[in-house]
Amino acid sequence: MTRRQQWKERERFQKEEEERKMNLQIYVFVLRCIAYPFNAKQPTDMTRRQQKVNKQQLQTVKERFLAFLNGETQIVADEAFCNAVRSYYESFLKSERASRMVQSGGCSANDFREVFKKNIERRVRSLPEIDGLSKETVLSSWIAKYDAIYRGEEDTRRPTQRAHMGSVSELILSKEQLYEMFQQILGVRKFEHQLLYNGCQLDNVDEQAAQIRRELDGRLQLAENIARERRYPKFISADMEVLYVEELRSSVNLLMANLESLPVSKGGPDFKQKLKRSSMNNSFLDLGDEGDILSKSDVVLSFTLEIVIVEVHGLKSLAPNQVVYCTMEVEGGEKLQTDQAEASRPQWETQGDFTTTHPLPSVKVKLFTERTGVLALEDKELGRVVLNPTTNSPKQAEFHRMVVPRNSPDTDLRIKLAVRMDKPPNMKHSGFLYASGQRLRKRWKKRYFVLVQVSQYTFAMCSYREKKAEPQELMQLEGYTVDYCDPQPGLQGGCVFFNAVKEGDLVIFACDDEQDRVLWVQAMYRATGQSYKPVPPQLNRTTNRKEGNPKPPTPISLNPSQRQGVEDLISATPSRFDHSTLFRVLQKKTLQHRMNDSFSCLGWFSPGQVFVLDEYCARYGVRGCHRHLSYLKDLMDYSEKSALVDPTLLHYSYAFCASHIHGNRPDGMGTVTVEEKEQFESIRSRLMTLLMNQITHFRYCFPFGRPDGALKATLSLLERVLMRDITTPVPSEEMKNLLQKCLEKAAQINYSQLLDYAQIKVDPEEAADKQLEDMLMLGELCIEVLQQNDEHHSEAFSWWSDLLADHAEAFLCLYRQNLDSALQVQPADSWNTFPLFQLLNNFLRTDPHLCNGPFHKHLQDVFVPLVVRYIDLMESSIAQSIHRGFEQETWQPVSNGSATSEDLFWKLDALQMFVLDLNWPEPEFAKHLEQRLKLMASDMMEACVKRTKSAFDAKMQKASKSTEFRVPLSVCTMFNILMDAKKQCSKLCVLDCSQEQQYHSRIDVLIDETFKEMISSLISKFAVVLDGVLSKLSRYDEGTFFSSILSFTVKAAAKYVEVPKPGMDLADTYITFVRQNQDILRDRISDELYIENLFEQWYSSSMKAVCVWLTDRLDLQLHTYQLKTLIKIVKKTYRDFRLQGVLDGTLNNRSYETIYNRLTVEEATAAVKAGGALQGLSMRDSDEEDI
Rounded to the nearest 5 degrees, what angle is found at the Cα of 955, between the Cα atoms of 952 and 960? Predict the structure, then answer.
């Protein structure tokens, strides 16, 4: 190792050693703050902090949610909940920002839960209402399932135990826990703590109170030295120098008042007297003096005595079976009695409890036996013992010789008993001393002294006589200095001496034991509050002795160097240290420990840490501004390293410092040092930069709105930092301009981060399809970012909502550049870009701030030509498909019409739905598109109807005119086409505007007229067939040549052979024609209304034709064959059409009645002339007829 390296190593070692010594010294001060606090308490109203989520836990949570999504858990859930969990998993758990939250140390399980809760609240509110199931119930159920997924297979009791331990450490800590915490904070080892604990006598309350009084006296002396030597800090104004000294004195006086307010006695009366400190020279005083500060009423002691009587020895004068008992009493108190025992075994183990105010009480115990004589009035006393116990008397049971009456044979009567006298809290020491004072001329004699603490600052040496509650003499110890002294010549009594000295007075004390002297000097040293610490004479003479000291002041290691080091730490005068520097180190290390613990603290100290820091500042005079300036520096250090720090905490500390700098005295301090102001200005500038950076990176500094309300608090803090003083508010325009700059930068940062996350590299040479695919994915991510901003951050920017909208526009403007580049390389007639428009437009039109904004209008301008071009091409394509389709149409039924009509109506509907799904945001252009599509649909439908009518007419011309005619399937298809067109017309051609309504009505009229023409044409075809049947019947008309030939031929032939009569083939053929066509129409035509209309017209036309035929033969009698044929045709037609649903009003029309009456008359005439020529045919209804 070179010399330079050795020098560096030595320098490093010295630095570490100095740092270790400083940490130990700080730890000594902290120990005293914890051991005897009198200014601060552990706060119980602080917000409970949650446990942190670490990287391993985050990975475990991801795996549990993924297992649920894969169906690997037993948790039953519906599709809506699964979708919510999937969205939560993809957008939150897998996001980089969630990982950053965990890394920052400010993320808890509650944050995870709140993000999920906020996500599902929006989803559940969008769900439709369900009868009997409120949305609050759904939310509660989903949250319960979320908790089950998050917890996984863990034991449900474990979180409860963790939470319990967390609540204990977060709310209240014992002294031992505080010691252990600050050992970790300051790097103090356990054995070092034990040495310092014993050396500081932390378990001795009196020593700690005395230490405080010495510290306060030292601070008062320091204030006087500063005023005398004019060693003031540099203030912003010279007038503050005098005020500074007054503040130092006031702070010490406040601490004295706090200390004075603490109760001295906890067992007896609660003394809280606030006696004024006096500079009078007081020594032994008579009780009768009037001008004394202390009087006999001020010094009250209360003792508890326990007297235990065990047994009696030496009782020989009584019979073995005789009853004995004992009584016990304290002078001036009640008398107690033991149980009875036999003289052969006088044992009791009985305890009596007494209270007294006598420091030297008189205890009497007597032994009695019962007298059995009739005239006996009192029991016989066998012996007694009188004791004068003190608090220093032995506590264990001992034998005492009893005083027996004269002539008693039991001369060696002894009783075993114990008298325990407890020391009250305000009694610090007691014992017998020789004493003599100058002012009180009394002889040197032995007295019983008690050192009494009347209040925190008032002690008195009181001498007592036996059986007296009030002190005989007292000496107030204020102003005295106690020390060891050499033996005084001429004084008889006492072996070792010490004295108490004051201006004008000297009191000498002596006792018989060195150990007792040490105890008395230490007790009086703590009571006087003197700065000088008495040293036993042995240490003065021999400094290297390792044994022989009555009581080593510090029970430390045997190593002399270590012993001296610990002694130096303990005996160091606190007022000589720069506690501002020490506290800065303590606070920094405490914050470091807090940020590294298992709680998501966000920079907040735990209650125990707050308590210790508060007590340290109050006890050692750390200025509040210095404390908060140091705190701000440390918090900003963590915040600049991406750790989550609560801005409310920064706001509180900054406001305190600002109020102090501007003279508002938040802690009562009116002095402001130059150093404080310079540090404040430096911190203000640094804090401004930090806050602007956080607002610029608000998506990453406050991911998903966590911590709750942090962004809003940051904006509030920024506004506070911008204030020039504590009263003048910041101009709104200044704040707005600053936020605008931050959000403009935020847009660029967020977009670049989004490109990196999506791994999209904008390359003009890339394929058009790939660029469009990238833009679609990037558009989805942009929408997700803006939705998250609105969901999690809009509330924070509620006062500047227009700035958040401008931020969104700036963000979209960056996307617009890439979007335009991708659209420019797309083919001219490519319609793959419309899904991108729909995606962006559906989001933008629902946002009140972005709808018809700059980006939205630009998007419309880009896609207007594409939409118009698309509609033009579709119109041309549909028109061509109609022309080609009807030319090649086979008229086979397809769904509700033919192949061509179905294709037409589908295309028109699809085109209109496409434009409707565009949700065009600009009302006028949207109206124009709708109008154009409706008019186009009307034109296309008109062409369809006309082409169908033309085809129908051609079909009818080619159809047969005989009863062999059957309605072709194609004709039914044509009817169905018109009916479908009628239905589609209301959907495809109707607009609210009156002009389009008229146009639609014209198309509707055209369809109705075409229907009528087609029905008329078909009815005419049916009428032609009926006319053919009637023409055949006309051959049998009376008086015609053909009728005569037929009649003559039949009559002539009938003379020789049996001639068959004319059959009913003609009627049957026609009836079959009617029925089959009825079935065809009924089965093939889909609209019932038009079928009924057709059948009514057909029936009416048929009856009218028959009626006309009969009317033409009104003067002629019908031939039997004619009559039989017509009766069957008419009856069957009537019944068939009635079965098809033709109403009675139509069936029984005038033509039918005329026919019915004529045929009935002809039937009667035929029955008269020919008899059974009709072969049972009749116009009368009969259930037996063959229908």
Answer: 135
Query: Residue 388, SS3?
Result: coil
**Measured over all CA atoms, what is the biggest interatomic distance in the chain, rounded to whole angstroms?**
199
| pLDDT of the residue at 401 | 92
- Dihedral of alpha carbons 612, 618, 622, 627, sign: positive
List of E strands, 757-871: none
- Alpha carbon separation from 437 to 344, 444, 618 (Å, rounded): 56, 9, 40
User: Smallest Cα–Cα separation from 853: which of 805, 819, 816?
Assistant: 805
Give the three-state DSSP class for 1078. Answer: helix
b/e 940-960 (16+ beta carbons within 10 angstroms → b): bbbbbbebbbebbeebeeebe
Partnered with residue 836 across adjacent β-strands are none
Phi, psi torsion values for 395, nearest 5 degrees: -95, -20
Contacts of 712 (CB under 8 A, 6+ apart): 795, 796
Kind and range of the H or E element at 312? strand 303-313
Token pair belonging to 481: 């200095």
Contact 998, 1004 (CB under 8 A): no
Torsion of CA 560, 562, 563, 565, to 10 degrees: 120
Question: What length is written for the chain?
Answer: 1187
Profile the chain (1187 residues) by mean pLDDT over runs of 10 residues.
Answer: 82 90 94 92 83 90 92 88 91 88 86 89 79 84 92 58 46 88 92 87 87 90 90 89 91 90 52 34 36 73 93 89 92 88 91 92 92 76 92 91 88 92 91 83 82 88 90 87 88 89 84 92 88 74 37 41 77 91 95 90 91 94 94 94 91 94 86 93 95 93 87 93 88 92 94 88 82 91 92 89 92 93 86 91 92 93 92 91 89 89 91 90 91 90 92 90 90 91 85 52 86 92 92 83 54 47 77 93 88 91 93 87 89 92 91 91 81 65 45
Beta-bridge partner residues of 384: 366, 403
**For residue 416, which phi and psi values (nearest 5 degrees)?**
-100, 120
Contacts of residue 1087, defined as CB under 8 A and 6 or more positions apart, other chains included, come to 975, 976, 979
Distance of CA 808 to the CA centre of its chain: 27
Give the burial string for 888-917 (b: 16+ CB within 10 Å, else e). ebebebeebbbbbbbbbbebbeebbebbee
The amino acid at 972: C
Give whole-number Cα distances, 260 to 272, 277, 1068, 1113, in Å: 7, 11, 132, 143
Q: Which amino acid is at 177?
A: Q
Residues 711, 279: Cα–Cα separation, whole Å: 59
Rg of the chain over Cα atoms, rounded to whole angstroms, equals 58
CA distances from 720 to 387, 631, 683, 746 (A): 76, 18, 13, 22
| Strand, coil or helix: 414 | strand
CA dihedral over 694, 696, 699, 705, signed as positive or negative: positive
Q: In whole angstroms, what is the distance from residue 300 CA to residue 296 CA?
A: 8
C-alpha distances (whole Å) from 70 to each of 63, 67, 82, 116, 410 are 10, 5, 10, 19, 99
Q: Which two tokens stand for residue 136?
A: 């609050």
Listing DSSP states for 1019-1076 in one string gives: HHHHHHHHHHHHHHHGGG-TT-HHHHHHHHHHHHHHTTS-PPPP-SHHHHHHHHHHHH
- Peptide bond connecting 707 to the previous residue in cis, omega within 30 degrees of 0: yes
The Cα 955–Cα 1018 span in angstroms is 10
pTM: 0.72
Task: Round to whole Å and give the CA distance between 15 and 19.
Answer: 6
Q: CA 166 to CA 776: how far, in whole Å? A: 48
